[in-house]
Amino acid sequence: MSVSEAQFEGWIVEHYPAVYRRCFYLLGDPVEAEDAAQETFLRAFQARERYDPARPVRPWLLTMATRHCIDRLRRRQRRGPEVPWNDGRPAPRDAPGPEDPEARILTAEDAQAVRAAVAALPPLERTLVVLHYWEELSYEAIAAQTGLSLSAVKSRLYRARQRLARMLQTTRP
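RE: above sequence
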């Protein structure tokens, strides 16, 4: 059973925000995230004949977006130094900050250090960290979306956490 164009347009309306958010979290640049989200939907449209209607569409689209962003990150890495994340990036959670202005400044500096450290990770490790900590996906969901085995997700995420800890220790006085 194929997906009609009208049904596909409904997918875009319903799932574009989630696909864009995934691309933005992984790429860190709103313009590049917009391009990646559009490319994801173009690829999904071209592959709509292979979509299994017995399965939910959102994970299918997010998997395509994740894999496309990993490819973009790898190409970006080959081109040269990593482009820093946008400092205006929204926080992963909308938790209220501390009331003390000094504590808010320290929290903002910590968040900036974490963003810089995550941006410096290799593409796959960066993807795993974003999917697990920003999007709060389970190991199983990450494995499904990245095409890695469950044990590979766990071990690579462990190594990414270790690398982040080392990077953050060197940036603190």
